[in-house]
Predict the 3D structure of the following.
Amino acid sequence: MRIARFRHAGEIKTGQIHHHGVRVFAGSPSIGSIIAGGIAEAHRREFAQTVPMEEVQLLAPLQPSSIRDFVAFEEHVEGVRRSVDGSAGVPDAWYDAPTFYFTNPHAIYGPGDDIPFPAISVARDFELEVAAIAGPDRSIFGYTIFNDWSARDLQSREMQVRLGPAKGKDFASSLGPWIVTSDELEPYRDADGFLDLWCTAAVNGVEVGRDLLSNMGWTFETMIAYAGRDSLVEPGDVLGSGTVGNGGCLAELWGRNGTQDPPPLTDGDVVTLTVEGIGSLTNRITSAAENAGIPRVRRRDPAQARAERQS
């Protein structure tokens, strides 16, 4: 089942992608309530009408309350690490557990949206990922395509502080084009529990990366269980696979090639991510308005400040 969130006749609605149209759910349920009800309940929902695809504007399939982005592809870690901080190899800690960071759930873009990169960034990059959508009781409700847009120059500088990424990432993430319920992708599951799906990335119609989702180091089930350790995972939470290898982002290729080839994204570039069994997600690059500078850091001698305060 492919569940979409879309605008039709001036209203935001939810429904099922069906042939060349969308079957609109009766009662106008929110995407959150559909996910919380689980897959079986989603299949039992009734429909009010069917509208042609050309009459709808697809939106990001959900506005999540949290996004955990994992780094589950060894090949990606090796290439990007060399590009971002000049280090070689994969850290030993990567093999211990599926590491993730939280990114901004309030800057979500959908199919066809323009992506406003920070104006000062000149090392603009995409990241080809698949996201699992948490369902009830830490189940996996479904999957969608996830683009973790990255300003590599900002990311490289701020991560020297050993914290982040922050402003190199928090300006935009794309989800779409819809949620494919997990039961629909079961035929692609291999003997080890991984989804054997081809994932491709293209810039301006030219393919620059291709990898199998099954090259992940951990299954989505393992990652959602790890995320829930001593914490909470709620229905509708998004868990990104991390960027696939073999050109799943430009920075990996820059690290391997020793130069920015292919070149960074610039205004007007169109990025299309395609995942077998799910669909395609396309966005165009733009620049956000320039920001004012920030005040210079205040430098002081802490010991001297304490001594002066005590005197």
